[in-house]
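Much of what follows relies on a compact textual record of a protein's fold. Think of the row as the fold of the chain written in a discrete alphabet. An example makes this concrete, so a full record is given next.


***
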Amino acid sequence: MKSLKTNLSTLIFATSNANKVKEVNNYLAGKYEIKSLKDISFFDDIPETSPTIEGNAIQKAQFVYDNLGYNCFSEDTGFEVAGLNGEPGVLAARYAGPERDAHNNMQKVLDGLIGKENRSAKFITVIALIIDGEVKCFEGICEGSVALTKQGTQGFGYDPIFIPNDYDVTFAQMNMEEKSKISHRGKAMKKFIDFLSN
């Protein structure tokens, strides 16, 4: 087992998503070295078959721990839209199809809300950390609403159509520092970092 328990300045992030790695690095502000799956020469897809966000986060981290031998962390994020009965939910990345096209996903949400008054929505992120077989989970939620159209060029995923509560701009119209202070991932990361620090 390639245990990192004695060297928690390095963390394996069970993802190949460059955008997520960049955002997480921003939260950690140089305190930890983050290595993605690509950094450890793993290029296959990890199964995400759980019906829950927490379940998928744990599944990905457990896969890396069991099959690659690293202590690691993973995260999974869902996007729940009230007017779509909670969709896309845990299927956020594949909402419009297996190709994971962000623009198609957003357009499907916007099309689904045509004629509906309730545009409230929320992001939910769960980070799962596995150290020597022990699992810890950290959740962050950001509530808001779906914009009428895509706005902004920053961020990724559903950021151009999500307006957080108490703001009049989308995540994609904020810089990373502004978004990090209020986002679902930022809230989960704060709990995660507090745990590591203690």
Observations:
- The helical segments are 18-28, 53-68, 102-112, 176-182, 184-197.
- DSSP finds five helices and seven strands in the chain.
- The chain has a mean pLDDT of 91.
- The longest helix spans residues 53-68.
